[in-house]
Every structure is written in structure tokens, then in C-alpha cells.
Amino acid sequence: MPSEQDLRQVQETEIEALRAIFCEDFEQIRTRSSAKTLATPFELRLKIRTEEVELQDRVRINLRTSAPLSHHSADFGP
After folding, report:
1. What is the CATH number of the domain that holds 45?
2. Quick one: DSSP state of residue 78?
3. How many domains does the chain have?
4. pLDDT tens readout for residues 5-60
5. Domain range for residue 33?
6. Is residue 77 a part of any domain in this protein?
7. Class of residue 32 by CB neighbours under 10 A (exposed 0-12, middle 13-18, buried 19+)
8. Cα separation of 8 and 43, whole Å?
9. Which pairing describes strands 26-30 and 41-49: parallel, antiparallel, or unpaired?
């Protein structure tokens, strides 16, 4: 089992990557509220819009998602 510090680092790296990819279309809604609670999720919103200029006001998706810090445990294997 990876340490909580390792999991937090992986999560921060993922958040930075999403912020770099989505720029102004990325919003971090909530961060971990407690350093002692491994299951506290981060929550984010991604705005996904069409590249078609004439449709941008009518076609878009606002994706809001959250994930607990512990979801990274599977990435580290047994």
C-alpha cells in the first residue's frame, strides 16, 4: 500500500496536468478538507465546448467529478 504522501503527490500531479490541458475550462471546486482523512475527495469541473464557433453558445458540457485520494491505490499494484 502506498503512503498517504505518495497518493497526495500523484493526485496533485494529476490536478496540475488537468489544469494545464484545460486552462480556463478547469476549475478546482474543492480540495482535501482534512489532512487526516484519506478518503476526502478532490472535486473539479471541466467545461468542454465545441470548436465550432457558431455552436459554442449552444453546445457544451460541464463535467463535475470527484475522486477520493484512495482511488490511486490501484495504480501502485500489490
Report:
1. 3.10.110.10
2. -
3. 1
4. 888 888 888 889 999 999 989 988 865 555 555 445 678 888 888 889 898 888 88
5. 4-72
6. no
7. middle
8. 14
9. antiparallel
